[in-house]
């Protein structure tokens, strides 16, 4: 297994965290992001650079054990022995927070940074943590020299404890959330696999996204196929069990099996609520409730027909896997689970690949490539718009939005990007395997006349996104149909 690499990237997040630390007065900030995204990595680097107390919750530790750990950390941080001398059974969050308050009052010329990582394991049920920190925050805010960061992967925690009107921690936050996003394609190449090709990195991204912990599990070998096989398709892999870790983080035991069935039912073609009900036998009310949570938690996303009012949308909203790893798990790993658990030497990955088409996994690569393209264009993940794709599309302002269009068993538009600045609608056809498909005159005419209608006054432009360098024939066909070709290098 590849050793953990030194801290890389995240300079924008570090800059924002540093600005938070140096701002006048006390502050309360939420650092959020997907499990395994590198939040702890980032916070430990922050502590290394500017100091502070870093306290991480643990799932298996009791509240008393966590309080004892916090007491020792605080005493070590300030260079005294006070809290750590108290018997564990007599420790409370009140006593710990009171000690912090007293010390901060005596040292008003210092700034104290308190980082509470894995907050959902610290603020467990009946721990009393959330109510106590809410009470003490009134004092800390008045003192003006305490900065608090709470961090966690559980969207459920933040929804329940900070977002609702009745939430205990509602109103404490003094700064906007900092979201830790996946690394981009170019960052994955720069920091993890500089010797791998764009195609190889793109396929890895389609499997696990830009998740540092996952990427760090892949052996950085020149032999790409062997590296991928050892990482995902041998019995030492972590990627069969990771599914349960993700589900357990957000859902209780009673709903775990239901959530797994629901995710498995989505497939790569997406499903409406009605089709999910038919496939799983789960009631409509339960499907809607859980799908809504999966969307809120960023694991699933919804596709609605672009340019069609909800009343006229007979096809309904379709739901798809948002998370790259979950998509890869259900489309590829789940069906091979038995083989993988027994495998030590066989190259399962090479057998999956289509020998004539290179790095193509049947019933996976095509749809996963669409998800990849959408993630690159998604402005929520690319607010700086540094990627080459925006230059290729001639989009310079974030005033655009994207969506989809399909008709049952007929025309499907892989991706639509509409810009209100230049009043242009950009139509995308994604082909992991580059062919002339999608460049026929009939297909373009269907879009222009029979199916999707752009907003009034918007001009249409067409793009074909491919994984390999275009052939001479493909270039000629694209030029004839006035279609621009987007290559993988444009996504980096």
Can you put this structure into words, describing what you see?
By secondary structure, the chain is an alpha/beta fold. The chain has 3 domains: 170 residues, Rossmann fold (3-Layer(aba) Sandwich), CATH 3.40.50; 94 residues, Winged helix-like DNA-binding domain superfamily/Winged helix DNA-binding domain (Arc Repressor Mutant, subunit A); 122 residues, 3-Layer(aba) Sandwich (Trna Endonuclease, Chain: A, domain 1). It has 22 helices and 12 strands. The strands form 3 sheets. It has a 5-stranded parallel beta sheet with strand order 2-3-4-1-5, with helices on both faces. Helix 1 packs across helix 2, helix 4 packs parallel to helix 6 and helix 9 packs across helix 19. The longest helix is centred in the N-terminal third of the chain and has 16 residues. It is globular, with a radius of gyration of 25 Å.
Distance between the termini: 27 Å
Quick check: average pLDDT?
89
Task: Specify the overall morphology.
Answer: globular
Order of strands in the sheet with most strands: 2-3-4-1-5
**Sheet/helix structural class:** alpha/beta
Q: Largest sheet, described in full?
A: 5 strands, parallel
CATH topological fold name of the largest domain: Rossmann fold
CATH class of the largest domain: Alpha Beta
Our count of helices gives 22
């Amino acid at each position: 297994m590849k050793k953990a690499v030194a801290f890389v990237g995240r300079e924008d997040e570090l800059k924002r965290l540093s600005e938070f630390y140096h701002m006048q007065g006390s502050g309360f900030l939420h650092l959020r992001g997907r499990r395994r995204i590198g939040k702890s990595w980032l916070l430990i680097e922050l502590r290394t650079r500017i100091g502070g107390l870093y306290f991480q919750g643990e799932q298996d530790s009791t509240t008393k054990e966590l309080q004892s750990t916090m007491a020792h950390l605080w005493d070590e941080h300030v260079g005294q022995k006070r809290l750590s001398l108290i018997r564990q059974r007599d420790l409370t969050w009140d006593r710990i927070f009171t000690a912090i308050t007293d010390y901060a009052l005596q040292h008003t010329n210092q700034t104290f940074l308190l980082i509470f990582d894995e907050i959902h394991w610290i603020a467990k049920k009946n721990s009393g943590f959330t109510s106590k920190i809410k009470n003490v925050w009134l004092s800390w805010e008045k003192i003006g020299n305490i900065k608090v960061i709470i961090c966690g992967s559980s969207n459920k925690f933040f929804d329940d404890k900070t977002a609702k009107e009745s939430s205990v921690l509602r109103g404490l936050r003094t700064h906007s959330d900092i979201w830790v996003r996946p690394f981009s394609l170019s960052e994955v190449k720069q920091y993890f696999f500089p010797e791998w090709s764009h195609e190889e990195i793109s396929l890895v991204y389609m499997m696990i996204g830009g998740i540092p912990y996952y990427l760090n599990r892949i052996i950085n070998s020149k032999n790409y196929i062997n590296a991928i096989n050892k990482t995902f398709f041998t019995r030492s892999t972590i990627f069969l069990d990771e599914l349960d870790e993700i589900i357990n983080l957000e859902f209780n035991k009673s709903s775990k099996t239901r959530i797994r069935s629901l995710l498995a039912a989505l497939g790569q073609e997406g499903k409406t609520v009605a089709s999910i009900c038919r496939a799983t036998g789960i009631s409509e009310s339960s499907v809607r409730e859980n799908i809504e949570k999966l969307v809120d938690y960023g694991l699933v996303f919804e596709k609605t027909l672009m340019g069609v009012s909800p009343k006229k949308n007979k096809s309904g909203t379709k739901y798809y896997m948002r998370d790259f790893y979950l998509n890869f798990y259900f489309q590829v790993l789940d069906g091979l689970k038995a083989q993988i658990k027994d495998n030590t030497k066989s190259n399962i990955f090479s057998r999956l690949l289509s020998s004539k088409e290179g790095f193509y996994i049947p019933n996976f690569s095509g749809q996963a490539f669409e998800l990849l393209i959408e993630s690159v264009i998604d402005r929520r993940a690319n607010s700086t718009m540094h990627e080459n794709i925006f230059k290729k599309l001639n989009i310079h302002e974030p005033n655009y939005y994207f969506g989809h269009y399909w008709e049952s068993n007929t025309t499907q538009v892989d991706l639509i990007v509409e810009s209100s600045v230049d009043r242009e609608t950009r139509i995308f056809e994604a082909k992991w395997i580059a062919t002339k498909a999608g460049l026929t005159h009939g297909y373009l005419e269907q879009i222009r006349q029979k199916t999707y209608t752009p907003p009034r006054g918007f001009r249409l432009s067409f793009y074909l996104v491919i994984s390999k360098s275009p052939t001479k024939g493909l270039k000629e066909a694209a030029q004839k149909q006035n279609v621009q070709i987007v290559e993988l290098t444009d996504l980096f």
